[in-house]
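Bug #2210: token dump truncated for Helix-turn-helix domain-containing protein?
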Amino acid sequence: MVEVTLTDAAMMRVMAHPMRMRIVGSLRLDGPATSAILARRLGTDSGQTSHHLRMLARHGFVAEAPERGRGSRGRERWWKAAHDSTTWAGAEGGAALERAARQLWDLMAEQFHQEVVHGRWSPEWFDAAASSDRVIRTTPEGLARLHDRIDQLITEADAPGPGAETVVVVTQAYPRRRQP
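Reproduced locally. Full output below:
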């Protein structure tokens, strides 16, 4: 799995745009596409998707997919996600980095909320889907170990085969400060 960790506020701001996040998500989940295919998938126009694809490519989030060819007229430009996963840090990079990281958190939460609200699943998948919250007490090192263990379990659960479908796993863990 190829993962990118964003540690730069400018890179975070590039991703902190709803259409760009949707484009990268679609390329990861649904596979390579042209701007026209993405426009149909995302309910927009190919001019918008082309603009955002160029920006994402300039910053290394997407790459051309020449293995898909160039179409019957040699003009199609296929794109694919450059990474399987994106993470980011923000606490130790100053105020600008923290603001950019918070923008990404907000946008990501909204995107996943929309997936859950508008998702249509069979009864079996509905029963298997889960969302929960747990409160624990730990240290930053303990939380990092927990995240590593969760990643290991996710990797072990990835088992393509009969009946398997694409499943999005979202993890969030953050300290809670009491409000005065």
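Output looks complete on our side. The chain has a mean pLDDT of 86. Marking as cannot-reproduce; reopen if the truncation happens again.
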